[in-house]
Specification:
single chain, 89 residues, alpha+beta, 2 helices
Length: 89
């Protein structure tokens, strides 16, 4: 996977890591080599609060896939975040 990103959670999240929406924006910012505040607003794609609640402290089945800032964002049932460029799919 060329410019992909994969974030597996290890242990309990810190306060900065606990919000899935912030982790997604941070991962995109890392790949784009920009500050997270310079990323496009996530709320234009998905409701960040709803996203955070969907994966908050839950273990289950399923995943979420959305497109954000030119990347395909996949969140698995353990809230691991994977970013893929669309042409790499």
């Amino acid at each position: 996977m060329g410019n992909g990103y994969n974030s597996k959670k290890e242990g309990p999240p810190s306060a900065d890591e606990s919000a899935l929406s912030l982790r997604i924006v941070g991962a995109v910012a890392d790949l784009m080599d920009i500050d997270p505040v310079d990323c496009p607003p996530l709320f234009e794609v998905v409701d960040p609060s709803a996203l955070d609640r969907l994966f908050e402290g839950k273990e289950g089945h399923g995943s979420l896939v959305l497109e954000y800032a030119g990347y395909v964002v996949t969140v698995d049932n353990e809230a691991n975040v994977t970013l893929t460029e669309p042409d790499e799919l």
